[in-house]
Q: What sequence folds into this?
């Protein structure tokens, strides 16, 4: 058991043997195991009572019909039902909408009376009044006015009781209104009264509908239509061959086998156990690969990946064969890639795709393959994106690419050798709907990424660039309260960036981490020489090397506190202690040995840890070389500068500071030369500008 554990850890660290693997506690491991078991249960439930045969599988035996029978054709019935759904919609009167339309008509009638009383012109909203209608309005009495209004409202009631369709043409609606207004009272039976009433009714009802769909009645109608048309059946004669051993079972053959009891549905614990173990092992392999790709993987990162996997399994159970693989595979892959890197995103995608035992409707397994391809392309592209705007563009391009890919798959379907039970359904409309759903989910995922960053400690590329903004509160405070430290930080940032670029390390990570590596000096900025501005040195007044060493260690401890307070992600917070590692505080150690030669050296070392990544190792070297490079005389040659930097790097190497960083000697040499290139840029010469002598003027 111990040997297996050592082999496992050795394989995890094979890519970077010196990298420290973040250990998980027993409680954390137990929580992850419980979630893995939940994923395995959801993934294997369909196999617990799964029929031993299914359409599309190979027949394990020859089957002959034992007697005559009429068997219901379930696939034809389902196809007929889906056809009827589109044209068997029952609508009923929506009383609330009818009330709103009548209120609108009452408003029109009041406006008409106001125009009549004011004697002004010929228009109420969109209704134009003809000269005859204007004349009738002016001449009508109060009794005629009330009788006409009631007649118009009664006509509206009759029309609304029959139902109004929003797509009805205006001419048809005007004709119907004219018919309703034929029976006016004798005292107002005027052509102008009828035409004006028709105009008001058309203006009120056109483009509106007081109908709504009733799902219950629609379902009843579909069942009635199916009953009238008859249930599709398969006629079977005694002795007919149902299936031949080794041939594909068609949907019709499956229905016949099920009718004669040839399909068993007893619990199959062995099959279920196999699927359960397969899913559990898949979760374990996914975590194993993710930890290899990211040795500092936190438990909450693993929980996020397992949570996405749990969500996918639940969605497959809920939607069955009608699930959209694009919607389930692409957004989680994109989120994990952004937060944990392409390797982790692709590992999740591989396991989520493999744990897909159910057949997908429509284009069959081709849809699953297309979804995996689009998700993999998204993972590879997302790893290179440097802003949320680029991610937004990708959220538009991926659904478009998925639509085109599935459309090509649809065109090739009839000409491939795929199984005949895989049908092409939905056509372009369904493909467009899937692309739209994918686009909406990707937009939602992009909106959720900032929330996930804070909740699960993800460090995306866009988040790093945001934290590198020098207008952030913590960096602004550093520049104002410790300007010398801030200037030192910017110098180190330039060196570290060039060094990271030379060895192919994460430039964005080291740039952002170097900006925050000395924020702990805000605790006592005047105790560091770069902020003293020529004033008295507090260490001289303290006159205690041990206490001064404690002040230097405090800038690391206080920096970690500030990192937690400002919710800096762990990869950035690691730069604070690791840039000092366990280095000696040489000046104060020397002072202490002048007083007591036997003083313990460990009391004058930083508490560490030593750098555990190439990025923090490069920052340690930059921190050690910055002051030395800046203090070189103007006539220093490039060779001398290289030797100076190399000697500092070799000292760090001999002290054991770089042992856990996986930084090789060849990479260290590249970093040394990169630092000298930056130094050469810093000391570039300028042309001396002649300054004319100041002239004096006589009055």
A:
């Amino acid at each position: 058991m111990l040997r297996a554990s050592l082999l496992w850890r050795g394989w995890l660290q094979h890519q970077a043997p010196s990298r420290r693997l973040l250990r998980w506690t027993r409680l954390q491991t137990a929580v992850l195991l419980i979630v893995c078991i939940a994923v395995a249960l959801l993934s294997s439930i369909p196999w617990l009572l799964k029929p031993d045969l299914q359409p599309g599988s190979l027949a394990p035996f020859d089957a002959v019909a034992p007697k005559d029978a009429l068997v219901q054709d379930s696939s034809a019935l389902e196809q007929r039902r889906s056809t009827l759904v589109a044209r068997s919609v029952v609508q009923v009167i929506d009383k609330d909408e009818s009330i709103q339309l009548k209120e609108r008509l009452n408003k029109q009638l009041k406006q008409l009376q106001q125009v009549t009383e004011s004697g002004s012109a010929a228009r109420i909203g969109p209704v134009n009044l003809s000269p005859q209608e204007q004349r009738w309005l002016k001449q009508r009495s109060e009794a005629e006015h009330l009788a006409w209004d009631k007649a118009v409202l009664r006509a509206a009631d009759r029309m609304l009781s029959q139902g109004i369709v929003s797509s009805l043409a205006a001419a048809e609606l005007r004709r119907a209104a004219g018919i309703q207004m034929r029976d006016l009272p004798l005292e107002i039976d005027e052509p102008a009264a009828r035409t004006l009433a028709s105009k008001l009714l058309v203006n009120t009802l056109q483009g509106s509908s007081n109908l709504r769909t009733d799902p219950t009645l629609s379902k009843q109608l579909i069942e009635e239509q199916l009953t009238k048309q008859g249930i599709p059946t398969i006629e079977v004669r005694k002795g007919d061959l149902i299936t031949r051993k080794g041939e594909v079972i068609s949907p019709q053959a499956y229905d016949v086998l099920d009718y004669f009891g040839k399909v068993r549905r007893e619990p199959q614990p062995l099959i279920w156990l196999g699927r359960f173990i397969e899913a559990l092992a898949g979760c374990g392999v996914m975590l194993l690969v993710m930890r290899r790709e990211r040795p500092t993987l936190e438990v909450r990162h693993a929980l996020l990946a397992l949570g996405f996997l749990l969500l996918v399994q639940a969605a497959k159970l809920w939607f069955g064969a009608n699930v959209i693989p694009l919607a389930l595979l692409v957004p989680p892959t994109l989120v994990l890639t952004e937060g944990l890197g392409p390797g982790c995103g692709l590992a999740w995608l591989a396991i989520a795709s493999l744990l897909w035992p159910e057949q997908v409707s429509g284009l069959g397994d081709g849809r699953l393959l297309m979804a995996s391809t689009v998700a993999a392309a998204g993972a590879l592209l997302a790893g290179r994106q440097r802003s949320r705007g680029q991610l937004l563009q990708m959220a538009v391009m991926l659904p478009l690419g998925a639509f085109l890919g599935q459309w090509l798959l649809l065109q090739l379907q009839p000409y491939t050798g795929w199984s005949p039970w895989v049908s092409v359904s939905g056509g372009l409309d369904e493909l467009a709907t899937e692309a739209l759903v994918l686009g909406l989910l990707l937009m939602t995922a992009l909106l959720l990424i900032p929330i996930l960053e804070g909740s699960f400690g993800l460090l995306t590329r866009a988040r790093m660039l945001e934290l590198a903004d020098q207008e952030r509160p913590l960096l602004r405070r550093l520049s104002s309260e410790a300007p010398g430290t801030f200037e030192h930080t910017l110098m180190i940032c330039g060196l570290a960036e060039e060094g990271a670029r030379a060895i192919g390390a994460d430039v964005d990570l080291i740039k952002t981490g170097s900006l925050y590596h000395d924020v702990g000096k805000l605790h006592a900025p005047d105790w560091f020489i770069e902020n003293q501005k020529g004033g008295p040195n507090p260490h001289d007044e303290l006159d205690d090397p041990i206490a001064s060493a404690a002040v230097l260690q405090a800038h690391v401890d206080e920096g970690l506190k500030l990192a937690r307070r400002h919710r800096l992600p762990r990869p950035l917070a690691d730069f604070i202690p690791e840039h000092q590692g366990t280095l000696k505080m040489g000046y104060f150690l020397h002072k202490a040995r002048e007083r007591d030669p036997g003083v313990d050296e460990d009391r004058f070392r930083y508490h560490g840890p030593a750098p555990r990544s190439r990025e923090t190792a490069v920052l340690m070297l930059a921190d050690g070389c910055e002051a030395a490079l800046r203090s070189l005389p103007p006539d220093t040659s490039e060779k001398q500068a290289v030797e100076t930097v190399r000697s500092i790097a070799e000292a760090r190497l001999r002290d054991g500071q770089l042992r856990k960083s996986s930084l090789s000697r060849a990479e260290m040499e590249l970093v040394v030369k990169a630092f000298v290139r930056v130094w050469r840029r810093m000391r570039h010469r300028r042309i001396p500008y002649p300054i004319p002598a100041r002239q004096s003027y006589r009055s």
The chain has 29 helices and eight strands. The radius of gyration is 39 Å. Residues 11-18, 414-426, 695-699 have pLDDT under 50 and may be disordered. The first strand starts at residue 63 and ends at 64.
